[in-house]
Amino acid sequence: MAKGATTATSEPLFSFGVIADIQYADLEDGYDFQKIRRRYYKHSLCHLQNAVEDWNGTQVQFVLQLGDIIDGFNAQHKMSESALERVMEEFKKLRVPVHHIWGNHEFYNFNRDYLAQSVLNTKNLQDHTLLSNSNRDQSSIGDTPAENYYAYQFCPMSKFRFILLDAYDLSILGRDTSTKKYQDSLHLLQEKNKNENLNSPIDLVERQFVQFNGGFSQDQLDWLDEVLTYADSNQERVVIVGHLPIHPNSSNDICLAWNYKDALTVIHSHKSVVCFLAGHLHRGGYCLDSHGVHHLTLEGIIETPPESQAFGSIYVYNDRMVLKGRGRVPDREMYYRDNCTLF
After folding, report:
1. What is the pTM of this model?
2. Residue 267 CB neighbours (<10 A)
3. What 3-state DSSP class applies to 80?
4. Helix axes 80-91, 44-58, angle to 10 degrees
5. What dotted CATH number matches 14-335?
């Protein structure tokens, strides 16, 4: 179907909300690490309140919270649990489910064991379609062991699937130092980053190898490949969600996932993926890659001044997705690569 066609596309199939990098803290305004970009720690809660009110009014089917829900400064002031509780009070006002991604600030405040038992673990919202259609062991497709990585998938409607990835599966953040995955992650990071400060990208060839980023284990990439293989065979469309961007043209070179190229290789080997949603880069970003996949990096709440906003609603049609942004988030039309309808 041509982009200008309207047959069977005049009404959206469903819609969902998107928001990133709230980073709430009951603190006065501050600045980023370069002392350039202002951060509105307290007012981020007001932005969330406005977003919840908007989504309740527009009746989205669910919301994707793209990570960094509270700021790392909460840990220094021993306010992590109270800050999370305050933010969740606002999310509870939503009339629809919220899917939570884990970012680096989640791990500044909590370890993985805590997060797995917290309200930020929304794997209970996953879809079990793949399990019922597979003869494989449950841990190998459609479902993932909690002790390995935080990732899951769900279907808001037939033929449309969302996959939430754990971009800190490889990371030294939030893991016990005695674990193999911590040791493997530390070895990889120190191999790529010789700086005394592992958060510094100075003189790095691959500038994404800093401590505040992370990556995807081979196990998780294999799981992603299996889910996408199923989606291909079932003629589905897939949106993948993660805190870290995976395409250089949708981010700066510092905020990418460590092994973003590996993730892109898996995604580009499948025809079902239409979009990758991320946060982390507070100024936002977007590109349409050479394989027809849209990469949308959402602008962050934390660097949004009180007079503006930074969230959006995405309307899904047979042939495209339409982002209706608020404030700093611009509107976008994102057509599927084959211009074919779902039905």
Report:
1. 0.92
2. 24
3. helix
4. 20
5. 3.60.21.10
